[in-house]
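Input/output pair, single chain:
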Amino acid sequence: MENNTITKQVAEPQINLEPTITKNLKERLSDEDLNEFKELILAKLDEATKDYELLKSTLSLRDDNGTNDTSPTFKTLEDAGDLLSKEETAQHAMRQEKFIQHLNNALIRIENKTYGTCRITGELIPKERLRSVPHTTTSINAKQELTGFNI
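Output:
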């Protein structure tokens, strides 16, 4: 007995996997602008690193007088407050570390001369936005599309 099944060929949808950044890559910030932003980022990186080191030393109790084991154990409310404060400090330190990472990535983009180009649209990000958020990789319009918010 012969199998006379008919197979139907369905055309698969074409998906464009090319990043959109390649279409406008000829547009970039001038070397003078890149140097201006490099100085701005280095200043922010220095400040962020100092803040991060301060947070780390706070968490590790480097500047503590060592009186934790001499305090009465019945101060549970104060202990809970201290624990909450340590957790908040740890979260702040993690955010600061992430910010430092973003700033270092921005410095790499400056060296590659891709800094200031939106990773979504490939267009130049306005200098005002780069001055206020120097580690950004998206323009305001692209950010709104990504998050779904209209600012």
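Residues 24-61+74-147 form a domain with the Four Helix Bundle (Hemerythrin (Met), subunit A) fold (CATH 1.20.120.910). Helices lie at 31-60, 76-112, 127-132, 140-147.
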